[in-house]
Here is the input.
Amino acid sequence: MIALRPRVRALAGAARGRFDRSPARAFLRQLNALDFVNTSILFGAALLVSVLPFVILLSSLANHRIDNDLSRHIGLNRQGALIVSQLFSPSPAHPAAELVTALIFAVGGTMAVAGSLQVIYERVFGLTHRGWKDAPRFATWAGVLFGVLVAESVISDPVHAAVGPVGQGLVTYVGVAAFFCWTMHFLLAGRVRWRQLVRPAILTGLFWIGLELFSVAYFSAAIVSDSRLYGTIGVVFSLMIWFIAIGAVIVLGAVAGETWNQHKAVRH
Here is the structure.
């Protein structure tokens, strides 16, 4: 028994050494450097208070029910969707001055989200921070994001009818991967080659599909339960968790993809 202890220690040391040199260790190290949990929470909170009001305002101008799109994205059942619909006015009508003021703040908040996203990607790829001199890029990104959301809302039902849920999931995956590939290249001002962004985009799309599957299984019951226990604020809390999960998906996809890039480079 005593003779086995040095061998066990040697095996444990060898296993630890292999883990320290593995992609998994590099992945965890980079997540720790990014302060993964706090970054996801802060980014999710920024999405909730900035992007959602931005989309709601523009959707109200277009006389479109945003709650239907939101419920579809989260994967809510009929009861959960009904609860979410009660958060929004069925016929929004606001004075022009209030709409313009709110729109200005919403656009400013969405640009701040774009800036936060740029910081995340700069840290993942080891780049220096460009800051608010890229404000025109942030505004352009916000406009493209809104256009993508509107286009997705318009084509979602026809695509589902044409190719079914599996085909729609594949279309969603391709669209998400393409959007985040462009987002990384655009917000980083072309400082990272397209080739290096393919793997982060692929994995971000996969994590996004995973989030959609998780949302279908979790959020309907959570929203119903939180609504019964806490009322409207409970529903907002559930939405907050969903937006934080989006932040986690973005960080995990970028870090995992860049770790994959580095592993391939070392092997070659």
Q: What stands out?
A: Residues 1-33 form one domain. The first helix runs from residue 4 to 20. The two ends are 43 Å apart (CA to CA). The chain has nine helices and no strands.
